[in-house]
Amino acid sequence: MILKNRIIATPTGDDFEEKAMGGAALVIAGHAIVEPGRSSFASPEEPYPFAKYEREETRKKVLKIHRGGAKASVEIFHAGQDARTVDYAKGPSALIRPDGVEVKEMDEEMMEETLRWYAETAASAKKIGFDSIFLHFGHGWLPAQFLSPHYNHRTDIYGGSIENRSRFPLRILETVRKAVGNNYPIDIRISAYEWIEDSISFEDVMYFLKKAEPYIDTVQISSGIDKIFEANVHCITTNLEEEMPNLKWAKQAKAELQIPVSVVSAVMTPAMADEIISKGYVDMVAFGRTLLADPYWPKKAMEGHPEDIVPCLRCSNCYHISSDHWNVGCSVNPRYHHQEFVPSEINLPKAETKKHVVILGGGPAGMKAAITASDRGHKVTIIEKQKELGGMLRFISKEAHKEEVQRLLDYYLTQIFKREIEVLLNTEADPELVKELQPDSLLIAFGAVERILPIPGVEGEKVQLATKAIAHPEQLGQNIVILGGGSIGCEIGLELAENGKNVTILELTDTLAANANSLYREALRQKFLLHENLHSLLKCGCSRIEEDVVIYKNESGEEKQLPYDQLILSTGLVAQRQLVESFYGICRDTVAIGDCVSPSNIMNANFEGYTAALNI
């Protein structure tokens, strides 16, 4: 198989055709369960993709990918002991799961049955037209369960030493190779490290890969475990982690193996990808969330326009586990997960009638609306009271670990500059000014303002709002108290602690960063544990602020005091509804979007800006 470039689209999301059209060389469709009723992590009723009445839908995936100009692969997957079943699951070792399901230790008969299914699934994938197959041997799924001492507690020939633990995974590869023949590409993904106490070692991973080389054509290096939360944040890294976290292992695999090696996770820019390929660290780069944020990332890079790439924020809102399925979406791509009713930015419907669209506010909602309305053919004017566009993005991008937000801000500004969008900076919008502009459509996107709670002493000299603290951290003292443990309060606290400050966060509820998704909270928790100078007090309400101490009540109602050099207010945002209402009645088509309606996040601001502009 010859690929047109070195970009792989991993099996995330179902926008196969768009990823292919966007320029990825190989698009992997996910996931094909191996063993019906016994291998799905989602449901025991999940259909087997190669069953008689499922084949047509599976064939369409192949055709969509080929239609887009890419080679098609499919992820072949077995959840093993974590499978959702109606009776029992099977894995390397026997146990009772926390949900009460029995996991049976696989005997030879069970192994043979699973091997037959692997063979049938692989052969069916080839027969239906996939150009290659992608076997998932990482993230704590069945093959990885045999390889890892965390899961494998056997004392027979399939447990103990890495030689024994490799035995059944190697039998899978041997069986699959026989099923598809010698000239059909087999790729596997493997976790180089599992990020748990009894993880498989990288030395053992390399032992296995060297034994696997005769059966496979390429390997993708990942890390982490899907079903163990503290390890999952290393499968789906947040912005709190370093970029390209798996590169160190991929480089070593590349140096020791004879087959091509790819790496996945947080290769954020074309420059990063070019560097690690040109230096010979890896042969290919696999992109997951990056291509959810912008499926046309490869094409834009190839055409020499990296500034047009919509950057992934690594927020993990696209990952169903993060949100517990409540609000799955992409912070920067409003189409992701909503393809059936949200059009692609590449194929925006042109406006039937050109209108003058006036947008009040240049934050993320306003900028997204402006770009989209302009692309549809409208005349657009943005009124922004500050000296720069950006809104809250300006402040957030100044935090540590927010390189991705800075990239998003740069992207928005570049796109506005490239279009004929009128921008009025240092301009306070009022109804009279708006009337003078005679808009056909008015979008109100003022954003929100920081909440100041009516606490005695809140106007003190040593009290600062979060936005000012972010902008001027050098002005803060050594002992910091942060009032409010939402995501921004936690991020500020972490940054200050990393810079040697003594930080205590006072939070009224029982959860830090309750407004963030669960994976991000776990990533924050792990970072907090690294700093002895960073503390949090939960279920504690501030009673008053004195010159040098904060007086608060704990969960038991006891009054305590906490000394401080600087107190930072991070108690949330308030919508500017009264201001918004003052602009209604000027223009028949008036819509309020973003935080000025209800404070939320970048994802909702971006979605509302995009869809509001679509409706003009």
TrEMBL record:
Its cofactor is FMN; [4Fe-4S] cluster. Keywords: Flavoprotein, FMN, Iron, Iron-sulfur, Metal-binding, Oxidoreductase. GO terms for molecular function: FMN binding; iron-sulfur cluster binding; metal ion binding; oxidoreductase activity. InterPro entries: Aldolase_TIM, FAD/NAD-bd_sf, FAD/NAD-binding_dom, NADH:flavin_oxidoreductase, OxRdtase_FMN_N. It comes from the Bacteria. Residues 356-581 form the FAD/NAD(P)-binding domain. The keyword Oxidoreductase applies. Residues 17-306 form the NADH:flavin oxidoreductase/NADH oxidase N-terminal domain. PANTHER family: 2,4-DIENOYL-COA REDUCTASE, 2,4-DIENOYL-COA REDUCTASE [(2E)-ENOYL-COA-PRODUCING]. This is NAD(P)-binding protein.
